[in-house]
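@channel sequence for tomorrow's demo:
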Amino acid sequence: MRDAVIVEAVRTPIGKGKPGGALAGVHPVDLLAHTLRTLVGRSGVDPALVDDVIGGCVDQVGEQAMNTTRYAWLSAGFPESVPATTIDRQCGSSQQAVHFAAQGVISGAYDLVVACGIESMSRVPMWSNVPPGADPFGPGLAARYPEGLVPQGISAELVAAKWSIGREEMDVFAASSHRRAARAHADGLFDAELAPVATDAGTVTADECVRPGTTPEILAGLRPAYADPAYAERFPQIDWSVTAGNASPINDGASAVLIASGETAARLGLRPKARLHSFAVTGSDPLTMLTGIIPATEKVLRRAGLRLDDIDLFEVNEAFACVVLAWLRETGADPAKVNVNGGAIALGHPLGASGTRLMTTLVNAMHQRGARYALQTMCEAGGLANATVLEAVTA
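structure tokens (generated this afternoon):
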């Protein structure tokens, strides 16, 4: 059977997703175009050889409407003959793009394909694709869940309550994420993956949200982000511990990976960074919605024929600290192997770009640490999760 390998991976620095953020002045099409241009340029491949470009984006409206991935490819100056599409599996959109791309390579439908992602939350705010008064769920779903579904912040509080994860534990985890990310920047561990972005205010070279001086004591001073009397009455078990400090921020960013068959990589003289070993996607309770990473991890390990102890590195998206902490409780994974260069709490979470951002960071960390196997998983709105196992490629 054919294999699928990652031969190049890049990401932009991640900016604050608000007016005045480092990347707020860059149109999302141009931000993704810059990433694609850097990806192809670093690989040295002829862009005309790319069979397809699959991009993830969550809020596909306004400046991110009209198949952003296609227009980013054209904006990059690449051949019109190469097709592109944009998909939405919420926060896991670009990780799903990787799955689709790799599965296409394994099946023989593709030889060389790009998986990528974009989100400019400063220019296209979250929920921009749901106009005021619109119902994106419909009467059938309302009938199935008569008490109503809840926002992600409330889901995070429910996760914290179910696993008895307290405020202090979440704040300690969040501070550790900043500490690891700051150290990775200082040690140059992100240098190989970053594609600096030129803006009118100067060139952006580093992730904007990393706060090296963050401590649990500082985070302890923040107020709960989602406290609500109605939800407090409905869910008396919640103690309101989730804050802006122990959750991921709102961000702008883009990322991309180039995937080829092993034969194509050899023919083009491309050196694989990792082999895409196994894939899984799961559904879970849409009320708590953030816990799908637990069954997704079990599922992908079963498909891979591996045990948890076989995995050398993990990337578990830090949408909220309690999500990763609940995953750690259930899986028993070694925390020292998880998000070793910091996670989304520090680096940022530009929704549609996060899947390939995590994968870009992960393949580089595998090389830096001599890891054989790595696992990436991400919770997604609606009760979904993707999981991917990567394997080092030996010469």
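heads up for whoever presents: The first helix runs from residue 28 to 43.
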